[in-house]
């Protein structure tokens, strides 16, 4: 018997329910990945993510080969290609992880149409707690994080699935080569399960609680791209951290719960990827010149520009910098969050339809924030998150010679350092711009 494990955002051997079920069920397993043109057509195939994906596929193929199998790579519409291969091989079953996006929903419906009850969908692959498992009375999802987190913590431990030790893939199945894509960002991390596991082992969760908001310390895990592509399982990471214990591990697990939270929102409301989760009454003030200055990291507000330049250089940005830059676009410049979300998706190596869109909505006040009018004052944030100015000096070389926190307000100097732009909006006017009556954090 043959079983197909259609891999999507679960590019790993460890704790992979899809691979595990396929191996359990059949003598021969085809681990399949389909490069789907619909993802490219939706603008979701950014070069940074494609380059990282290529590493993931190469690494997974290597790991599968070491246990006797191999990855089969196809190009085409995911459901059609999978069904075609299932028919060719007379596969008795096809296993796939449940997704949360509209795209994943369509793929699953098409697979079901082609395969009927040969299709098995596993909902415990993507998140620690499957979306939809926890719901408040009479509702289909949690709209507020705190009560969600309360029940999430009590949802019970799930033992991770062990990696298969042997696997046989039928010989002679045609497979495409892994596509090589040139990334947009020079500082991209190496993709794949092996690199992700190395990174986890090398990272120190103990200091996470103390340092996770310190921009210059750069002390967060940087595991987000590995979680996005499923090179690492969130369940396994939560368990490893919980075993270690302590405030750092606790704070880290809480972030994994945020990830689950956004996934369960998107699973229940797939349209909230691009439409306001909560309708916004007033209109945006879109201004293309301001948006472009923001994209280029040339707003004249150093903390904002540092974040945007880190994104361009690394395809990644510190969480606090994401909050500051997003708030600057959506709340200070008052531009539509979709403009920012689209730019982030074009560059982020961890760019994720659930985490990106719903975090953007949270910041813009159209999402799940219980204080939708909250505004982050970029100058107060700079003083708090980068008190010595080291993060700004790292990413904005024009300001590298300015001492301490003078770096956050270069317009106050007699002469602005060469080449650095003047602020695109009047910094003394910022609280008016932030609109009276709204709280500043
Ligand atoms: P750590 O602090 O080490 O956290 C561990 C893991 O928890 C992360 O890898 C991530 O999977 C998860 N996590 C942490 N914070 C959040 C959060 N607020 N929401 C959901 N999950 C979280 N994260 C993405 O993975 N992809 C995105 O496209 C994305 N876009 C964002 C856009 C905006 C405007 C904002 C404010 C946040 C966004 N985030 C996104 C969430 C967060 O910024 C990143 O997950 C985090 O910075 C990744 O770095 P890390 O792995 O070092 O995180």
Automatic annotation (TrEMBL):
Pfam short name (any one): FAD_binding_7
The keyword Flavoprotein is assigned to this record: yes
Cofactor(s) the record lists: FAD
Keywords, in A-Z order: Chromophore, FAD, Flavoprotein
UniProt cross-references to SUPFAM superfamilies, sorted A to Z: Cryptochrome/photolyase FAD-binding domain, Cryptochrome/photolyase, N-terminal domain
Domain of life: Bacteria
Domain Photolyase/cryptochrome alpha/beta: 1-131
PANTHER family for this protein: CRYPTOCHROME, CRYPTOCHROME CIRCADIAN CLOCK 5 ISOFORM X1
Family: Belongs to the DNA photolyase family.
Name of this chain's protein: Deoxyribodipyrimidine photo-lyase
